[in-house]
Amino acid sequence: MSEEIVIETNKLTKRFGDFVATNEITFQVKKGEIFGFLGANGAGKTTAMRMLCGLSVPSSGKGKVAGFDVYKQTEKIKENIGYMSQKFSLYEDLTVMENIRFFGGIYGLSRKEIKAKMAQMLERIGLEGQKNKLVSDLPLGWKQKLAFSVAIFHNPQIVFLDEPTGGVDPMTRRQFWDQIYEASDSGITVFVTTHYMDEAEYCNRISMMVDGYIKALDTPANLKKHYHAESMDQVFYELARGAKRKGD
């Protein structure tokens, strides 16, 4: 992890009428960092991620992703990021190879680049013998591996992962995090939302959102120490309880 900042926000806010989905969120993410973005449903995680991906225009505040402005340079942002959702962002009725070719083309890679990178990728994730199989026929864990590999196929500066391990078993989740570590070691910044508190411990730093606000931001070890907690579940409970008391 370097000291280079690849994501930075200053009081970034999104309103929908009178409702404030994200309220003046301010943070920085370093190159190669695994940055966890945690919070309950409705806390503002998805809204924040959409602004950072150039899919939603902020109401106020400032933000840059990969050096590009979240207001004026959204297309440049999209060219420099990868994205993977809980549904894996794959086409089930296409083969493994067809999916890779399709997304490689979207990312602007030439046919020659796609062919060379595809062979390397399939060997790395152990799917050489499955390249002509429909994605719908793959086991869930393999779909997950493929979706992540496709999301970083064009070697983006940052990859955004929106609840990427939902619905898979603990062993498969742990194997998936090995892929995340490899991507981080190669210099790709990983911005991940998750509701699995044990996964928060795998991140370099985590931000915890409650009702649109960032209520805590630090390393997992420091947060547990600050809240005298043994687990991230306990940290989140203390944050949510504190927010509820203030709202009473």
UniProtKB/TrEMBL annotation:
What highest taxon heads this organism's lineage?
Answer: Bacteria
Q: Residue ranges of the ABC transporter domain? A: 7-236
Instruction: Give the originating organism.
Output: Reichenbachiella ulvae
Gene Ontology MF annotations: ATP binding
Query: Which keywords has UniProt assigned to this entry?
Result: ATP-binding, Nucleotide-binding
Q: What is this protein called?
A: ABC transporter ATP-binding protein
Q: Which InterPro entries match?
A: AAA+_ATPase, ABC_transporter-like_ATP-bd, P-loop_NTPase
Coiled coil region boundaries: none
Task: Indicate whether Nucleotide-binding appears among the record's keywords.
Answer: yes
